[in-house]
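Researcher: Last one for today. Full complex below.
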Amino acid sequence: MSTPEAEVMQPSTPTGPMIRTLMGIAMLSGFLVVLTYQLTKPIIAENQRRAIEAAVFNVIPGAVARRDFVINEGELHPVTADKPADGILIYAGYDSEGDLKGVAAKAAAQGYADLIHILYGYDPSCECIRGMKVLKLAETPGLGDKIITDANFVANFEALDARLSSDGQALANEIVTVKQGSKQNPWEIDAISGATISSKAVGKAINQSAKRLLPDLVPHLDKLVQEDNTVDRPEISDE
Amino acid sequence: MGKDNNTITWETFSEGLWRDNPVFVMLLGMCPVLAVTNSAINALAMGLATTFVLLASGTLISLLRHSIPKQVRIATYIVIIATFVTIVDYTIQAISLDLYNALGAFIQLIVVNCMILGRAEAYASRNRPLKAVTNGLGMGIGFTFALLCLGVVREILGAGSLFGIDLFGPRFEPWVVMVLPAGGFLVLGAWLLLFEWLNQRKERAELETAAETR
Amino acid sequence: MGTESLSFIFLNAVLANNFVLALFLGLCPFLGVSGKLNTALPMGLATMFVMLVSSVCAYLINIVLVTFEIEFLRLIAYIAVIASAVQLVEMTLKKFTPGLFRSLGIFLPLITTNCAILGLALFQTFKEYDFLQSLIYALGAGTGFILAILLMAGLREKLELSTMPSITQGAAVSLMLGGLLSLSFMGFAGLGG
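Model: Here's the assembly. Have a good evening.
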C-alpha cells in the first residue's frame, strides 16, 4: 500500500537542475539536522546522566554522588569527559561524606522475550549485592515484569552474597536462581513462580557479570576511595 | 503538476478526520498504529510526532513543488521526511527519555509511514502550502484520533488504567493480552468491524427511506 | 551485547520476535498481498532478498558513520542508501535475469518503503551485531516474514470459501486472523531461555 514509483518517461529534465535540486535539498536537510542535534545534545546528555544517576543511587543504598571508572584487562581507569570509555564501565557511588558506598555495573541476559538489561550494586563492605534495577525489558506484562514489582523477589537483592573465593579469582559461590521457596543460602535467588525464566535471567546476568568483574575490581577497591572529599561529577554521556 | 486549485474548503480539512481517515478507512501507516498503542500516552505522543512530520514535510514540499524535477521527486521527498523525523527523534529524547524508550525505534520508523509519503506525493506536491497544511492537519488529527482510539481501549482493558491513572483499583484483573501484540490486531479488527457495521446500517436506512418515499 | 549465538539470533528473529506478528513491521504487504498463496510467496522471497541487501548496506554505512562520528545522519543515510541499493538491484535483475525480474521485480519498489526493511537496519544497529550476526538476523527476519505471510495467505484462501457475515468482508477479519496468529506465535517466546 505504499506509493509505487511511477516510472513514467517524462521529457527528460537536463541533469544539471536535477543534481542542483538534490544538492540543495541535501544541504538544507543537513543544516536542519545538525542544528537540532547541536541544540538538543546538552539536554539529552543531561537527561541520560540523570537517568543513570537515579538508577545508580537506587542500587547503592546511601549513595548521593557517583564517579565512573572502566576496568580494562585488570586495570582500573577513571573515565573523563574527553577520554572515551574502553572496557567494562562501572559506577562508584559515594555518600555525602565522600565515602565509597558501593559499585554499580550493568548486566544483561536472555529472558523470555528478549534481553533483560539490569543494573546491580555491589557493596564491598559486606561483599554482597545490595540492589538490582531493571533498565530495559520486553517481558510479558503481568508475568515477566514481576521481576520489577514482586516484593519477595526484589528482597533477594538486599544482601545477595557475592564473596570471592580464597584465591580471589572467582566467586566463592556461584549466584544461582532456585525454585520459589527453596532459597537456603545467601547466594541463592528465590525465583517467582510463573516467571521462572525471567527470574533465572536476572540471576544469570548477575552471576556472569560478577564472575567477570569482581576478581578484577576487588584488588583495586582502594583506588575508588577518593583522595579528597570533594565530589566531582564528570559529565559523561553514557552509552 | 496541473493547475493549482486555490480554494480551501472545510472538506480540505475534514476529509482526513473521518471520510478518508488514514487508519480506519485507508489502512495506512499500520506499523506504528499497532506497535505503540499499548498505552494512551504512547499513542498520543506517536500521533503528535507523526502529525508534526506530516505538517513540516508537507509545507516544505509544497513550497518547493515547482523546483523539484519529476524524476528525483521520490528521493527528495524521502530525504525531506527523514530530516524532520530525525528532528522529532532528538526532540523527544530531549523532552523525556522514558517516553523515548517506550516508543523505541518506532519514532525513526515514521519515515516509512506510507501515509506521509502518500500525502506528499498526492497532495503537497500539487497544492499551495496553506492548503497542504490544512489537509495535513486534518490527516494528522485523524491519525492521532485513531491511535488514541486503540491506545485508550488497550490500556483500559490491558492495564486497568488511563494515561497512567488507575481506574478500577487493585481488585481489577488486567486483561493482559490486550497490551500484547495480539491485542493490537484484535482491537483494531474490532474497531473496523464496528465502523463497517455502522456504515452498513446507515446504508440500509438510506435504502429504506428511499423505498418509502417512492 | 552482540554475543548471542548465531542459531539463537536466527530462531529469535523467525519465531519469538517475528517481525510481523510480534514487532508489527511490514504490515502493509502482510495485509495487502496476502490474499493468494501464489502472490504471497514471491512477495515474501523478494522481501527477504531486500532485507539481506539492506542489512549489508546498513552495516557498511554504520561503519562509515561511526568513523566520522556523524551518527545523527543515520536515518537519512540508511533510507537513501537502501532505496538506491534496491533500485540498483532491480536494474541488474532486469538486465541479466528477466525471468526472475518478472516474478519478483514488481514487488521491489513497494518493499523499499516497507517498515520491516528500515526496522531491520535500525535494530541490527541498536543490538550492535557484527557482520555475520547481521546477515543471520536478516535471514531470520526474512524467513519469519515469509512464514507469516504464507500462513496468512493460506488462511485467507480458506476463508474465501466460507460464508461470513457481511460486516466482516474486509480488512477487519484479516486483522482478527493476524491477532490469532500473533497469539499462537507468543508460544514460541522463551525458546531462548
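Chain C touches chain B at residues 21-28, 31, 72-73, 75-76, 79-80, 83, 113-115, 117-119, 122-123, 126, 166-168, 170-176, 178-180, 182-183, 186 (CB under 8 Å). The two ends of chain C are 16 Å apart (CA to CA).
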